[in-house]
Amino acid sequence: MAFNGHQCDDDIVDETPSKLPRCNQEMPGHFKNEPQNEATAADGRATCERRTSNSTPRHRKDSVKKTRPPFPWFGMDIGGTLVKLVYFEPKDITAEEEQEEVENLKSIRRYLTSNTAYGTTGIRDVHLELQDLTLCGRKGNLHFIRFPTHDLPVFLQMVRNKHFSSLHTTLCATGGGAYKFESDFRTMADLQLHKLDELDCLIRGVLYIDSVMSGGPVDSECYYFENPTDPDHCVQRPYPLENPYPLLLVNIGSGVSILAVYSKNNYKRVTGTSLGGGTFLGLCCLLTGCSTFEEALEIASQGESTRVDKLVRDIYGGDYERFGLPGWAVASSFGNMMCKEKRESVSKEDLARATLVTITNNIGSITRMCALNENIERVVFVGNFLRVNTLSMKLLAYAMDYWSKGQLKALFLRHEGYFGAVGALLELLHPSESSTNFS
Amino acid sequence: MAECGRVDSNTSSGHAMDKSITLPPDEIFRNLENAKRFAIDIGGSLTKLAYYSTVQHKVAKVRSFDHNAKEAASDKLYEISVQEEVTARLHFIKFENAYIETCLDFIKDHLVNTETKVIKATGGGAHKFKELIEKKLGLKVDKEDEMTSLIKGCNFVLKNIPHEAFVYAKHADSEFRFQTTNPDIFPYLLVNIGSGVSIVKVESEDKFERIGGSSIGGGTFWGLGALLTKTKRFDELLQLASKGQHTSVDMLVKDIYGGSYGCLGLTGDLIASSFGKSATADKEFSKEDMAKSLLHMISNDIGQLACLYAKLHNLSRVYFGGFFIRGHPVTMHTITYSINFFTKGEVQALFLRHEGYLGAIGAFLKGAEEDNPNQYSWGENYAGSSGLMSVSPEMNPMQRARSGTFDMLEMDRLERQLVNLPLLQDPSSYIPDTVDLTEDAPAREYWLYCFEEALDGVVKRALASQPDMPEAAVRAEKFRQKYRHKLQTLRHQPFAYGSLTVRSLLDTREHCLNEFNFPDPYSKIKEHENDVALKYYQKAVKSLEELSWEDKQFALVRGVLAGNVFDWGAKAVSDVLESDPEFGFEEAKQQLEERPWLVDCYDQWLERLKGPPHKCALFFVDNSGVDIILGVMPFVRELLSRGTEVVLASNSGPALNDVTNSELQILTERIAAMDPVIQTSLQEDRLTLVQSGSSSPCLDLSRLDKVLAMVVRERKTDLVVIEGMGRAIHTNYYAALSCESLKLAVIKNSWLADRLGGKLFSVVFKYEVPAGKPSRDDGALTP
């Protein structure tokens, strides 16, 4: 995705690479949460707005250094099930800086970067780490960390123990939890959250990650499945999102939000459904006794949904030709479970698989209808429901292709569920117009 | 998708239900002797049987004596004879699959002279019972496509049954809000929720398309529900759901946000993730809560998809059906909620009273194509139909108390094809009835009481009308029981036959009387009163002619009003008429309220009369005797004299003491013999008699004889006169017409008078000119 504000800041960086460290040194403490900085925040906004004008690089560089916040740089997305945390680890720390760096900050950096698991449930997705990234004039690595929302108190305790609040940083957070747990952050960790809208962050994050990934050494961020209707030849292929608009962005977390994105700043939430990742896991726990998403997926991968679902051919003996319905199509999800004998003969694996198929197909059909109503042909699926869930991705790719007769393309992104958190981090670095109202 | 194909046997009828039921032959499978053209729809748990039959019943005919041959043969005005008439009727019966064998045996035993060789079959269970049906009935089973049957049936009920569709509002004063029959039913969306969901766009009688569907449907609720709650039966699952709290299982917006998600307008109570809270291994959830969560999940999902399809195809009428809906208040509520949420109220979820019969009706129609059933108009027979049933026993204790397992719908083929009055300002918003008793509880109480009180009198009158028939007493008693039972049902379920109105109460009574062969209890009274009134006709006309023009106009109006006092349908009057046989026209005039009347537009009317004559007046007449002969006829005579053509519309069949078309024919001839004005008008075709197509004391202007509509259009009718309480007060009081109209009536019921702010014998004289519309504008005549 070529056109977005953050990329333009990287352009500035490229234009004046040698000066950057100095800029940083010159940079005074912090800018947020101080009354006189309203103007600075507005400047930050102006940087983005001015990107198309022909103002001088010098001028822009100045605004960059003015708006650069102090370390540490975090972005957080507190969802219904998972907390997603992105952390920027600066790798260009000078000796001077090293000296001045307070112990707390150092300890946080070491803790996060030297581990891949935190406590019993926190995990760093190492494979997603973005290295040698230039953000706001600093070079470093972007880390992606997640832990269950119900472990947020543990996290807050840790934040408190590490005296995070002494760093006088702003913690930008999005997701419903930013609102729900705002007072917990204040009382338990003495932190004031900078709350951000989750959909704004999501889109910002998607556009940014795609832009930094395109043309990079690694595979592109966006990919699709070639030959989705042919299981033997269905392969993952990179998809260059050069001219992305309009696109339908389907975020599958605990629930599902569907957005129509027309440009960087122009999007609307088309609809949503409560049948999402939370429903899959919730039903799987009830039906199979499993307790984690990974476990549920593992069980599902071994099952057969056709023993649970009633197919068109179970009713009509074959295709329902009158309406062009193929015999293999599901006529009634869990329809066979109306029958006592069949209830007794299915396995946990079958039930988990049927749950996965039901939820996935339903998201597929609602998405397809939205795409038709909005007249959009490209659909990008994101969200943690798709994490390590090739089964669902292929199903979505298949459903989009088959039912639209090849008109709709399902696209996926490598950083599945982290875009909201990335968007929150970007908000810290480059406050957008809307967020200035918050500060 | 189709209703579920195979269902475990124990789900269909509950536990060890006794399958050998003794069928009461005079209550179900009626008229089997003449039955032909069978169709059967076997669903997951219910079987629906349809057949066409002919009913022989008695009708009262009037015939003019041949005056030339035997003038003195009788002092009677005309001859009344009771004759046998054969009419066509459609029977639909719904029963649980468990009784199918018993029912087939019963049919076999009672089916006599039929040439039927084939039975049309549809529904998922049709093939399962194919052999049984063929063996038991000796008929060849001919399968019909399920969806085609469904759509055909849906079109049929939407066209022929007023108040078929309704909006469900759980917390409103009346849960059921019935829709007025829109003459143009297409296009619409039918969302059929069987085990899966089919979404069908219907564009015309023969053109429909399955535009989409979903696998998350009734089967998902049932199957997944059975797994989660270990509850086997669908009904029990719904019961569980109605008692549960979904908030303990679902993750709500407020569980994530702590409150609402303000900037998107998502309230805190909205479900963010169905079953989102059950994603834990160490917590138990109640069956009720899980069932409720599941119900919400499925209803919301279906509602959302339906809205997306409706939007894509730009359709605003969306009907829901299938076993998931089938009269269950719980599912109707959740679907309604979902549709309201997703469309922000732009689309209303509509349900159908006879939804369960659609497949059977459609399959039947397919098999009966050579009879051209779609060329006729059909009417729901209130006497033979069970009405809208709820499967919820709490809501409807009556149902379980009765045989419970059998539900019936009977539809009579009407002799005439019925259409809209072309002069209705907006046919789609026309509501005949003035008061909806389903919504107005005090009025409902009063009228139900009123009809119960009047029942003895009606029975007595019915008996008196057939003095020579000894078994009449038995029939009269049966009539009493049936009608009383209907009134009791309506007390519990005012919505059983659509909106409850004074009209529907009256019509139900007429249907019940016909059912027991009391076709015209007032025939002799009417004859006597006609006879007496005729004798005064000339005198009345003469005295009017002596008046000045202005006095005459007033006297004519007063005459119509006084005539309208003679009404056996009104208790206050029938008491007077019963006790004082001498009560006459003059006494009636004395009873009338003095001007200013309760509703008094007389001055405007008089002004209008000073202007140019109307082109043609359509007059809906009311009672026999003084009313028609001394009240209406002189008024009509004056119109004719002014140069206005007159179309007199009277009932096709008898209702109370209302004058019927065949009676009016004879009366007009007799008047013509005395009065050259009438004589000439008849000869010149300036006075025309038409039948209304109705047999009701009230008037539904959206269901009128096609011929009447044609005449009205041809004559460029620019004045409509509606007379009497039934036609101008109980119905049509607010009817907006595209031409001038006159609604006149005497309030002969003190309760109603009180309600309207008047008193007994208050006068309503309502003269209306459509706003901004010249009355002689031909453009006002909508085709």
UniProtKB/TrEMBL annotation, chain A:
Coiled coil: none annotated. Its EC number is 2.7.1.33. Pathway: Cofactor biosynthesis; coenzyme A biosynthesis; CoA from (R)-pantothenate: step 1/5. Residues 1-68 are annotated as: Disordered. InterPro entries: ATPase_NBD, Type_II_PanK. Residues 57-68 have a biased composition (Basic residues). It is found in: Cytoplasm. GO terms for biological process: coenzyme A biosynthetic process. Pfam families: Fumble. Gene3D superfamilies: 3.30.420.40, 3.30.420.510. Keywords: ATP-binding, Coenzyme A biosynthesis, Cytoplasm, Kinase, Nucleotide-binding, Phosphoprotein, Transferase. One of its GO terms (cellular component) is cytosol. One of its GO terms (molecular function) is pantothenate kinase activity. It catalyses: (R)-pantothenate + ATP = (R)-4'-phosphopantothenate + ADP + H(+). Homodimer. Belongs to the type II pantothenate kinase family. NCBIfam families: panK_eukar. This is pantothenate kinase. The lineage of its organism: Eukaryota, Metazoa, Chordata, Craniata, Vertebrata.
From TrEMBL, chain B:
Keywords: Acetylation, ATP-binding, Coenzyme A biosynthesis, Cytoplasm, Hydrolase, Manganese, Metal-binding, Nickel, Nitration, Nucleotide-binding, Phosphoprotein. GO terms for molecular function: ATP binding; hydrolase activity; metal ion binding; pantothenate kinase activity. Its main location: cytoplasm. Residues 450-759 form the Damage-control phosphatase ARMT1-like metal-binding domain. GO terms for biological process: coenzyme A biosynthetic process. Homodimer. Interacts with PKM. NCBIfam families: panK_eukar. It comes from the Eukaryota. SUPFAM superfamilies: Actin-like ATPase domain (SSF53067), AF1104-like (SSF111321). Gene3D superfamilies: 3.30.420.40, 3.30.420.510, AF1104-like, Uncharacterised protein PF01937, DUF89, domain 2, Uncharacterised protein PF01937, DUF89, domain 3. InterPro entries: ARMT-1-like_metal-bd_sf, ARMT1-like_metal-bd, At2g17340_3_helix_bundle, ATPase_NBD, PanK_long, Type_II_PanK. It comes from Austrofundulus limnaeus. This is 4'-phosphopantetheine phosphatase. Its cofactor is Ni(2+); Mn(2+). PANTHER family: 4'-PHOSPHOPANTETHEINE PHOSPHATASE, PANTOTHENATE KINASE. One of its GO terms (cellular component) is nucleus. In the N-terminal section; belongs to the type II pantothenate kinase family. It catalyses: (R)-4'-phosphopantetheine sulfonate + H2O = (R)-pantetheine sulfonate + phosphate; (R)-4'-phospho-S-sulfopantetheine + H2O = (R)-S-sulfopantetheine + phosphate; (R)-4'-phosphopantetheine + H2O = (R)-pantetheine + phosphate. It is found in: Cytoplasm. It holds the Pfam family ARMT1-like_dom. Phosphatase which shows a preference for 4'-phosphopantetheine and its oxidatively damaged forms (sulfonate or S-sulfonate), providing strong indirect evidence that the phosphatase activity pre-empts damage in the coenzyme A (CoA) pathway. Hydrolyzing excess 4'-phosphopantetheine could constitute a directed overflow mechanism to prevent its oxidation to the S-sulfonate, sulfonate, or other forms. Hydrolyzing 4'-phosphopantetheine sulfonate or S-sulfonate would forestall their conversion to inactive forms of CoA and acyl carrier protein.
